[in-house]
Amino acid sequence: MFDQIFEVFLLLGTAVGVVVVAYTMYHALKYRDDGAGTDPYADKVERPEMGEMPTGGAGGRKVFYSFSISAIIVVSLIAWTYSQLLYIEQGPDLAQEEALEIDVEGYRFGWDFVYPNGHTTNTLYVPQDRVVRLQVTATDVFHNFGIPELRVKTDAVPGQYTSAWFTANETGTYAAKCYELCGSGHSLMTTDVVVMPQDEYEEWYAETNETDAGGNETATAAETDQRITAEATALGGAPA
Q1: In the chain, where are the structural domains located?
Q2: How many CB atoms lie within 10 A of CB 223?
Q3: CA atoms of 145 and 131, how far apart (whole Å)
Q4: CA–CA separation, 53 vs 20, rounded Å?
Q5: Distance CA 218, CA 119 (A)
Q6: d(C-alpha 213, C-alpha 119), whole Å
Q7: Which of 4, 47, 94, 149 is buried deepest, with most CB atoms within 10 A?
Q8: How far, CA to CA in Å, does 194 sit from each of 112, 168, 177, 197?
Q9: Which residues of 45-65 are buried (b: 16+ CB within 10 A; e: fewer)?
């Protein structure tokens, strides 16, 4: 959606620039000084004398038309952009879209993703071409969950839930990161977002019930802290 807004502004801005530059260059060439010191339009245009107000201009119709067209374009663009931003903020209609609801919990320094069946994992698995709704919170300090390539980003606040949504149109592995400075391991607070074809996702989701029966695959916060401490020490840093 953001890409579409950017493309519309880019195309419209380019079109306006081309028209303005072309109009300016046309008149600059048409009325240029030929070097002879004479006015080639002396017999075609009535020039005003010093102190005399210019006449003509078709009674201001050109100014009125140009202003009206510009106003219509600008107002239409503002209205369209506002409607798109409202859609981004509110998301698709739940009655029309079968959205996948996932809870996201941030902690120093990792993420837990809780699925509707209670399965919890440190990697976010989502199906292709399906609306994914995230309910994001934190268990310790302020974090910020974001997936740049999928244009989604929201705060993770302890004791509160913030909402975000996205639709991944292409399969692949994307990076989710924390965008709120939360401690010495902040730069390591990343995880993978795996976008799978719908049938593969359904197969994976069905298997999570068996995984949960034999033990959850999620690393605990203590295990994550141990990993971050080891990595920070190896880099010469100090754990939080």
Answers
A1: 1-31, 98-213
A2: 12
A3: 17
A4: 27
A5: 9
A6: 10
A7: 149
A8: 14, 10, 14, 10
A9: eeeeeeeeeeeeeeeeeeeee
Question: CATH topology for 98-213?
Answer: Immunoglobulin-like (2.60.40)
Q: Measured between alpha carbons, how far apart are the two ends of the chain, in Å?
A: 38
229: left (phi over 0), alpha (psi -120 to 50) or beta: alpha
Helix 2-30 / helix 61-90 crossing angle, nearest 10 deg? 160
Strand partners, 177: 146, 190
pLDDT tens digits, one per residue of 23-70: 889 888 877 766 666 666 667 667 667 776 666 655 567 777 888 888
The span from the CA of 90 to the CA of 63, in Å, is 40
SS3 sequence of the chain? CHHHHHHHHHHHHHHHHHHHHHHHHHHHHHCCCCCCCCCCCCCCCCCCCCCCCCCCHHHHHHHHHHHHHHHHHHHHHHHHHHHHHHHHHHCCCCCCCCCEEEEEEEECCEEEEECCCCCEECCEEEECCCEEEEEEEECCCCEEEEEHHHCEEEEECECCCEEEEEECCCCEEEEEEECCCCCCCHHHCEEEEEEECHHHHHHHHHHHHHHHHHCCCCCCHHHHHHHHHHHHHHCCCCCC
How is residue 80 written in tokens? 């369209």
Cα–Cα distances (Å) from 200 to 115, 118, 137, 183, in that order, read 16, 19, 28, 37
Report how far apart, in Å, the C-alpha atoms of 22 and of each of 28, 192, 196 are.
10, 49, 49
For residue 224, pLDDT beyond 90: no
